[in-house]
Design a protein that fits this description.
Blueprint lengths: L17 E5 L4 H12 L3 E6 L2 H12 L5 E5 L5 H14 L5 E4 L16 H29 L2 E6 L12 H21 L4 E8 L20 H13 L8 E4 L6
Parallel strand pairs: 1-2, 1-4, 2-3, 4-5, 5-6, 6-7
């Protein structure tokens, strides 16, 4: 059953929005979900780890009754379709999609030491999943002529480095996919944007330990998502780069 939204206010400007966030159980996804709930949005969290997902949902339910937790693998088309349908049935029409789900390892290391299964896992998780989820949600947004799709990429999608072959390939691909989606959908009143953070202090499986004083926080990325959603209706910020002030 749909939960009625309340009129937008200065404190809760997103109260008329329903957001689906993939990879929403921890790290950046959890921070984005928390920020959007604080701004009044109804939030549907999608992730594979049901234990972490329920823990995050329980925390968010202390802030809002309009929170949904759905265990789903975003590389599985059937599970994606079910998650989208359940979200719309229980919370209402999806107006915000945040494609955040992704992995690091086994994406790091020399390309010649990787195997085909490593490639498939990284590219399916970081790139194909965005295609699979977006192709279900976008037609619904087209019908309503409104919506925001925000893809969480990385500055690794703008640069190259030794040992980054698979991960960089997935994120460079995501840059191209996002740009083309933006051109496909802008005529329908839908904005598609990409956020490229530098190194973020989370439990994300990356290239090694991080100095908390020299990296971003998950909340920094969530702030950028909120900024994109709160821009004027005539405005379209297509790409955001976020770097820590202190160089690693």
């Amino acid at each position: 059953m749909n939960t009625p939204s309340t009129p937008a206010t200065q404190d809760q400007p997103l109260s008329q929005h329903v957001a689906l966030i993939t990879g929403g159980s921890r790290g950046i996804g959890k921070a984005i979900a928390t920020k959007l709930v604080q701004l009044g949005a109804a939030v549907s969290l999608c992730a594979r780890d049901s234990h972490a997902l329920q823990s995050t949902a329980h925390q968010l339910e202390q802030l809002s009754s309009r929170v949904l937790a759905l265990t789903a693998d975003v590389t599985n088309p059937r599970q994606i379709a079910a998650a989208v349908k359940t979200t719309e049935d229980q919370l209402g029409p999806i107006s915000v999609l945040v494609n955040n789900a992704g992995i690091g390892n086994p994406g790091f290391g020399p390309v010649h030491e990787k195997n085909e299964s490593d490639w498939d896992l990284v590219l399916d998780s970081n790139l194909k999943s965005v295609f699979l989820v977006s192709r279900v949600v976008a037609p619904l947004m087209i019908q309503r002529r409104r919506g925001d799709i925000i893809n969480i990429s990385s500055l690794a999608g703008k640069s190259t480095f030794a040992g980054g072959g698979l991960y960089c390939a997935s994120k460079w691909g995501l840059q191209g996919l996002t740009g083309c989606m933006a051109e496909d959908l802008r005529a329908h009143g839908i904005r598609v944007s990409v956020i490229c953070p530098g190194s973020v202090f989370t439990d994300f499986s990356g290239r090694g330990p991080k100095d908390p004083a020299k990296v971003l926080t998950a909340s920094d990325v969530a702030h950028a998502v909120a900024m994109l959603l709160l821009q004027g209706p005539q405005s379209f910020i297509s790409e955001v780069h976020i770097r820590p002030v202190a160089k690693p």
